[in-house]
Structure formats: C-alpha cells, structure tokens
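Tutorial, part two.
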Amino acid sequence: MKRIILFLSLCLILAQPAAAFNLEELLPDLISKGFDRILESQADNMYDMIGVNSSNAQPAVSTLMAQKNDFLSNPMVQKQKNFTSFWFFVFYIIFLLAGGIGVMKESASFDTMGNASGSWRNKYFEIAIIAPLVWAFYLYGLQWLFSLESILAKSAFLESMNFVSYSPDNSMAYLLRALSFVSLMIIFYFRYLVVGIISAYFLLFAAAGFFPWTRSFAMTIFTYGAVMLFSRFLMCLILLGGTGLMSGLPYPLNESLLLYYVISSGAILAGVACILYPLLASFGNQIKYLMVGKFLFAKGK
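Running the prediction step on this input gives:
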C-alpha cells in the first residue's frame, strides 16, 4: 500500500508543469525518502517476527537481560520430574548391579584377597554414594545456580544502562537497532530453550554419567548448559565494559551510535559463540591433538 501511494504521488508530480518544481532537486529527495521507508519497513518486519513492535522492543530486551531465571517453574519441567526420577532410579539399579560385578572382577584379579583399591572400585563407590544425593537435591542445586546467574546478570545490566541511552534519529539507525534487538532476543530464546531442556531432563543426563561409555556425553551436555546459562552474564559484562569505556571517550565518540552498535555486536557475537560452544570446543580439541601429535612426531625425529 505504501509503495502504491508513493508511485501515485510520483505520477502526479510528473504530470505537473515543469516550472512548478525543480526535477533535479525533487527526484533525489523522493528516492531518499523511499529508501528510508524501505529500511523502516524491513525493521518493522523483523520486530513482527519476534512478536514486538518498535516502541516496546527495548523494554522487552531489557526484561530478558535482567529477569529472574524461571526455568524450574515451567510447566513442562515440573511435568517431567516424575518421569526422569523413575528412569534415574532404574539406571541407578542397573549401575549398582553391573558395576558391582565389575568391582568383584577387579578385586578378584589382585593377590590381596580383594582389599586392593582399583580404579573402577573407587569410581563405583563414589557414584553409588553421590547419585542419591543428586536425586534428592538437584532441584535445590539448579535453583541456586539460576539465582546466582540472575543476580550477576541483573547487577551488570543495570550498571550498563547508566552509561548510554539512545534513540534512532534516521532510518539506518532504526534498522541497526532492530537488528541488534532481534539478534539479542533470538539468542535469549535459544538460551531459554537449551537450559530449559537440560533442566527438565537433568536426571536422565546425570544417569548417563553413571556409565563410562556415556559419561563424556553427559559432561558435554552439562558443560553446554552451564555455558548457555551464564552466556547472559557474559553479554552483560561486554555491554557494561564497552559502555563504560565509551563514556570515558572524548566527544563525539562518547555519544556515537555507531560505536554503541559495535559494542552491541560484540555482545551478540559472544552469545553466538556460546551457542556454538560444542562445535568450537570440538574444533579446539582437534587443533590441540594435532599440535600435540606434531610435537611428538618432531621430538621422535
């Protein structure tokens, strides 16, 4: 509809006598305004994708940056407690039986009447004692972690808000702000999804840690959950440090919207890196093994 109105307006203008207007001045102005409308329209479309508009986008992002972690109050998480508890108990019994056989075999292989402490024997009794404690107190432990992250993130974000406040004064700034806000909200939605799923099925992932062949998988899942949980705090620290440094710069850098967008982009990149943590960690391990292999090969020569 906007494009039709713009087209009809252009036709009416062109139908006027040449003396009524200066074509060389009018056309560039019309093109510029049309381009501005396109940028603003794309920004509004991005806001619509995440269910907000330009007026409440900043409050929505601020709420996500500072709100309390409510993963455990999610109905899905509450519904899965009995399901995961049951299977945790089943896998625990399987672990006790299968692991006990392994302990007896390990003990019988020594000449000290089974009194020697083998590597699996120590791990077996360690898991056998700790697992019931995990089952009994895992919700309290998760709630403590969630509360700690909430306090850290909220304090850092509230401090960063004291440094810079801005509003877009042109279409390009309006589009850049939309890109920043939408990217931040997508990262927070993904964070909520990952941490929520791990919270719901925490006991199943913990049960995977009972057995040697699935223990590395369980550790990867828990590490990823911790990274995603504290990704918000990391992003708040970048905003806090970046805006703090920005406020100490001379004018006009201390009021530069472009510099603020660079700081926001740094926070967004940190969030993306946290999302891609499993891939980055795997790639880093491959590089580490490659370097160690080269070192051993060179030393062997």
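The chain has eleven helices and no strands. In part three we will examine how such features are distributed along the chain.
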